[in-house]
Amino acid sequence: MKLTRMHVFWFWGAMDALYLIRYAVASAMEGRIPYLSDIESALWVLRDHSREQLYMFGIAMLLQVSILISCVLLFLGREQVRWVTYLQTPLRLAFIVPSVSLLLVGAQLVPNYNLVLMAVLVVISEVVKVWSVWRWCEKS
What residue intervals traverse the membrane (predicted)? Predict the structure, then answer.
């Protein structure tokens, strides 16, 4: 079977979808409304903290929105996903949100996982995603 652009895009779209679903399910299991409860909690907590922490929360929410956008664009096979991918990569690295969402699942299942190994795997996953999206956007 020949690897096509849609295979690559659907794989990365599935990884983004898995991340979003995992987040929503974890929030719901804790009795929270995904994202809305986070924003509400942050507004209460961050009132007493510095502006920098408010900015960090805003950037983290921007990453969440960009993951949703990239998920949709990847499933639609749109070339514009390249720019979303490029822009979200530094945020994914800063907040340790790997493009290969299975890394997060694995970290939950392994009791004393190695944090350095996880960081290396996150960097590798981002390099592979940026390279593959760039390569398959160029092939169109």
Answer: 7-25, 54-77, 89-109, 115-134
For 59-103, what is each residue's pLDDT tens digit? 999 999 999 999 999 999 999 999 999 999 999 999 988 898 877
Q: Where are the alpha helices (DSSP H) in the chain?
A: 5-29, 36-46, 51-76, 81-94, 102-109, 115-138
Tokens of 73: 């664009």
Nearest-10 Cα torsion for 98, 102, 106, 109? 120
Is the Cβ–Cβ distance between 49 and 97 less than 8 Å?
A: no
Distance CA 131, CA 140 (A): 15
The sign of the CA dihedral 107, 25, 65, 18 is: positive
Tokens describing residue 61: 């929410």
Both structure tokens of 41: 């909690």
